[in-house]
Amino acid sequence: MKAKEQTLSIFALGGVNEIGKNMYVLQYENDLLIIDCGGKFPDESLLGIDLIIPDISYLEQNKDKIRGLIVTHGHEDHIGGIPYFLKKLNVPIYATRFTLGLIEIKLDEHKLLRETECIQIDAESKLKFEKISVSFFKTNHSIPDCLGIVFHTPEGNVVHTGDFKFDLTPVNNQYSDIHKMAEIGRNGVLALLSESTNAERPGSTPSERIVGEHIEEAFKKAEQKVIVSTFASNVNRVQQVVDASIKTNRKLALLGRSMVNVVSVAIERGYLNVPEGMLVDARDVNELSPEKVTILCTGSQGEPLAALSRLSTASYRDVAILPDDLIILAAGPIPGNERNVTRIIDNLFTLGAKVIYGSGSSSGMHVSGHAYQEELKLMLTLMRPKYFIPIHGEFRMLHHHKVLAESVGVESGHTFIVKNGDVVDIQNGEALQTRKVAAGDIYVDGVGVGDIGDVVLRDRKQLSEDGMLVIVITLSKAERKIVSGPDTISRGFVYNRESEDLIKTVNRLVTNTVTELQEENIHRWNVIKQAIKKSVGQYLFTKTKRKPMILPIIIEI
Amino acid sequence: MKAKEQTLSIFALGGVNEIGKNMYVLQYENDLLIIDCGGKFPDESLLGIDLIIPDISYLEQNKDKIRGLIVTHGHEDHIGGIPYFLKKLNVPIYATRFTLGLIEIKLDEHKLLRETECIQIDAESKLKFEKISVSFFKTNHSIPDCLGIVFHTPEGNVVHTGDFKFDLTPVNNQYSDIHKMAEIGRNGVLALLSESTNAERPGSTPSERIVGEHIEEAFKKAEQKVIVSTFASNVNRVQQVVDASIKTNRKLALLGRSMVNVVSVAIERGYLNVPEGMLVDARDVNELSPEKVTILCTGSQGEPLAALSRLSTASYRDVAILPDDLIILAAGPIPGNERNVTRIIDNLFTLGAKVIYGSGSSSGMHVSGHAYQEELKLMLTLMRPKYFIPIHGEFRMLHHHKVLAESVGVESGHTFIVKNGDVVDIQNGEALQTRKVAAGDIYVDGVGVGDIGDVVLRDRKQLSEDGMLVIVITLSKAERKIVSGPDTISRGFVYNRESEDLIKTVNRLVTNTVTELQEENIHRWNVIKQAIKKSVGQYLFTKTKRKPMILPIIIEI
């Protein structure tokens, strides 16, 4: 019954040529399935922006065909965009029990919980749509309950790995279902979409269990409080902190909203095993003997308002770091966060604490959740795909992943390194990438979604670097002359004794400029404003080498 | 003749609890000697600031005692502050031939060359002041012609290491004079100031020669152009690029102002050996066969305006990157620069180039110029100081260096981890740290030095995150009512259809606020402005979750 003229289309709306805002689409006839809906944290050039989410205008235009949003796991770069997405498109969400728990926290915050259809799935689930059916396989990653996805389409099977590593000695039995993967590969894979985060790194990522061993060792040596900062969603690592605390007779306090939220979900839903009576309130920590206390806190990325940062500056109300307390940073800094993290480490040392830290896995307290080269090759070997689309990575990572794929037998020319919006069309078993759909970054700033554009960002950049001058001048319409002003107000520009003289000269310049124009009988505001901007701008640049924004305001009376 | 009541004072005006703006002072009676005068690059929180330099108000107050500025080597964090320093204090500068070459480039740019007394020294020089005499010893570091310093004072000898590593197979014969160091140690060292950059790293830093071997290997395999980006001042690495180019029959072009400047100084002064006729102009590169070309360029830290960045976006006029060109990043990214660097790597891969890169020394194309733990211990062992002051590092590095010092025999209590401005006073062989002198950060922005303070930076931050609204309203003095406006101008705030409604509501709010106050007979501008700020601020925060700067301007006619 396969309609030969039909095409299977695969594309990313986010997640390629970047780390973050993952969103992939698979479409065949009337079945449009979405995989993940992530957010991305802005770099420092995007002044004032809180979050970046994918442009979903293609989905809005094709909303009748959308069958659902399938979520591979609960990390921010896979679920962070969901609330904004749902405000535009009310679509059923398919995810595992733990992933749904994390999504529901978000939906609750955005008051979207009641109107959203959340459907719980697991690795044994099968979904059936018009022409596509979907099955799943278990993977291991730095968060529980992750899935890889198989789409059974009339053109053939397409596999999306989600984020994964192969951890053969996993914690909490979160194993990779290699046998099922092998079977999927044996049955034939038309196209594989596999994550590329660590495609630059040779070898294999160490097992999470290694971290547990190092944690236990450190706990046994610790003489005072132990404070561990890690990603709240890394429940297996949290479990190992719990286990080490049990072995060393420590109670456990949680600091930071996301730590409290995620740990609650994990305990409730059975992903984390914390004995009755072990959890204590942060306010009660001071009543316990220090060697009986473990604290788990947020802020491992150096976030200035998170618990660890506040502890390091002795500004957390209920808990103080004391000499010989042990702080373990059980997370690697994400590129861009290093300076914030080292500032915290310095502050902790200043307080007399012992600190275990290190880049990547060098401290033994962190391992990556993303497959290294040998693991990526294993996935490619298991799946034996005809076509390969490396996803989830910046360009160089996708490039390296392509080289790996070819090294294990993917035919040259069968790997598609795509941009967001590039569509790979497969028809009669032949894949081509020729067309595009709309894709891009949407900025979230406060409650505004998509209302910040390049103009606003350019203004913010100028304002941030050199500040601004507002120059107010009142003109008489009747007499064609200045009746008051110019008055110049500066913000973010200069502030000292010398600046008074500077401002006086600016005012004199403005008076001259305006008077000259009036003598020439030029009264158009725009012309006057441009002339003010030009003369003041040139003067200030010569004197200060700065280019503040100049905003002339003319009042005519 | 030693006056027992006299004190030897040692302190930092920059360089401790930070990486950058190194400046140390040694004072005994009427002899005040300054070591280095560095700049520091601002992090992203210091919006619009170009450079940070040390506060030298203590030196200005004691200028009669200053005998000179001794510069250990020519890196920016040791010489970057010199032009600003000289504009306040005209002091003789003592430095080696190569270091002086780099300083003179700066002095020339700032038109200070003629009035400055530059005195060339070498490792055999001896300086004699009233009570202090000074001698030197050769060290190895990632720039030629580095010195460590010995101050012979009536209290005893004080050693300042400068920046160093122990490279036992150095390039260009830039050896560490271990025998002289041993002799200095045998003669007794009262206090050692030693750099701490890599005090966290176990082992020893590899030899620069390793980089040369990897460069040569890569050159031999390269089939097209080779582009190497490294620090211009790392002349020994530049030499190895020259040597590899000679062996593979390539001409050499230099891109980037600092590469051209520094290489010229190095050739002129005999630190770099480039055969006659090997250098070609960048404009002539296209006329050569690609396999006959090496390009050395600036921008290894991802600086957006430097040569490498412009090459990566195909926007360098004279030279284009073509498929299979080889780009070697022969420098590790300084923390904070990773994102800019990886963006460039991605762009280079997109152009089809081959790229050799990697964090730290993982690519084989970079080694650190700063001693690791075993080398720091060797320096401490050679010097056997009574007192130890770790310098040149953030707090955790100083802390680790202290631990290392105690592990090789420095007595507990004899290490001083100081802040900038903390004075270590030594009298009758006993050291104490009790007093402070003024120290701090001075911001350079454009041609302004020290005219940017916290208020300006706070304004810039607010402007950068949420932009601003200027609200202009004209009031009649006679009638006590609004005669025109309010008019609201926004910059960096929002820009879309919806914002029009927002601005309309703002104007309505302002009218209401002002009218109400006038009805209550309140006419003081400050009160009216505050009321406008409050009502508009609250409204905008509710609607947008943003806090733009609100600048009400009242014109009274």
Verbal overview:
Two copies of one chain form a homodimer. By secondary structure, chain A is of the alpha/beta class. Chain A has three domains: 8-203 and 368-449, Ribonuclease Z/Hydroxyacylglutathione hydrolase-like (Metallo-beta-lactamase, Chain A); 208-356, Rossmann fold, CATH 3.40.50.10710; 454-556, Ubiquitin-like (UB roll) (Roll). Chain A contains 15 helices and 26 strands. Chain A has an eight-stranded mixed β-sheet. A six-stranded mixed β-sheet of chain A has the order 8-9-10-11-12-19. In chain A, strands 15-14-16-13-17-18 form a six-stranded parallel β-sheet, with helices on both faces. In chain A, helix 5 packs across helix 11. The longest helix of chain A is centred in the last third of the chain and has 23 residues, at 497-519. Chain A is globular, with a radius of gyration of 29 Å. The termini of chain A are far apart. At the A-B interface, helix 10, helix 12, helix 13, strand 24 and strand 25 of A face helix 10, helix 12, helix 13, strand 24 and strand 25 of B. Chains A, B: Residues 20-214 form the Metallo-beta-lactamase domain. Chains A, B: The active site is at residues 195, 370. Chains A, B: It is an enzyme of class 3 (hydrolase). Chains A, B: Zn(2+) 1 binds at residues 73, 75, 77, 141, 163, 392. Chains A, B: An RNase that has 5'-3' exonuclease and possibly endonuclease activity. Involved in maturation of rRNA and in some organisms also mRNA maturation and/or decay.
